[in-house]
Write a structure and sequence with these properties.
The protein has 248 residues and is α+β, with helices and mostly antiparallel strands. The chain contains 13 helices and four strands. The protein has a four-stranded mixed β-sheet, with helices on both faces. Helix 6 crosses helix 7, helix 7 runs parallel beside helix 9 and helix 8 runs antiparallel to helix 9. The longest helix has 15 residues. The chain is elongated, with a radius of gyration of 25 Å.
């Protein structure tokens, strides 16, 4: 597929949000470009449906060549989710091109996580025990089924994940004789009512006595919710400020 400055946004940037798009920056007079062209075309064709190839003539599209700082050709840039995810320069051997393209494709664990069923998640965790995207949903499934110990064992293998730590704290709080606002907050969390859950749990942290013996676990649950919402979520920004006030 040939692309130009008028089609680049839709054919490359937007399309790369659904499938990786590899852009071959080339020119008719470029000998190495003619060497690389058939190699990359055949390699992409062998992965039909998994990624796409776009060819851009730098002589006819000099503005784009400047935008992406093309100083030597052939230059290959791979786009994923609207941004450059990988690149190389020069007429590389077929094996190098093959490895480059394969690096853009989802790994086995990525594919298992995307499926999301219990068998796939178990396989993903077996392959990468520290992968939060696999461990957390599997632990949630086990916890809801009443298999608390197994869920905690899985979460213990995921260091540095606020969502995993938050779920572990949520499980640890179960059956602890908690104050009503904490119990109600956890119930709201189970119903995916993040706003009410945060309101009740942060309020419990700020009240006298209601969070005694469970303060750190509640904080971890709140941090886990905020991590799930993401840093730019309006509710997360406001709740983060309220959490700091309640703690300090």
């Amino acid at each position: 597929m040939d692309v130009t400055e008028s089609t680049f946004q839709s054919a490359v940037i937007e399309r790369s949000r659904s499938v990786p798009v590899v852009v071959d920056f080339w020119a008719e007079w470029c000998g190495p470009c003619r060497q690389l062209g058939p190699v990359i075309e055949q390699a992409v064709a062998a992965r039909a449906g998994k990624l796409e190839l776009a060819k851009l003539d730098v002589d006819s599209n000099q503005s784009l060549a400047r935008t992406y700082r093309i100083q030597s050709i052939p230059a290959v840039k791979a786009f994923r989710d609207g941004v450059v995810a990988g690149e190389f320069v020069g007429a590389q051997p077929r094996a190098t091109v093959e490895r480059f393209l394969d690096s853009l494709l989802p790994s086995e664990v990525d594919q298992l996580v995307a499926r999301g069923d219990e068998q796939s998640l178990r396989r993903a965790v077996a392959l990468e025990p520290a992968r939060a995207e696999a461990a957390v949903p599997l632990a949630q499934l086990l916890y809801r089924r009443g298999e608390r110990d197994q869920a905690l064992e899985i979460l213990a293998e995921v260091p540095g994940s606020f969502s995993a730590d938050g779920l572990a704290a949520r499980i640890e709080l179960e059956g602890s004789g908690l104050a009503p606002e904490i119990t109600d907050g956890l119930a709201a969390l189970d119903q995916d009512d993040h706003e009410r859950a945060l309101d009740l749990l942060i309020a419990a942290l700020g009240s006298n006595g209601s969070a005694d013996g469970a303060r750190d676990e509640i904080r971890r649950v709140v941090v886990g919710i905020l991590d799930e919402l993401g840093v730019d979520h309006p509710l997360a920004r406001e709740s983060r400020r309220r959490l700091a006030s309640a703690l300090y």
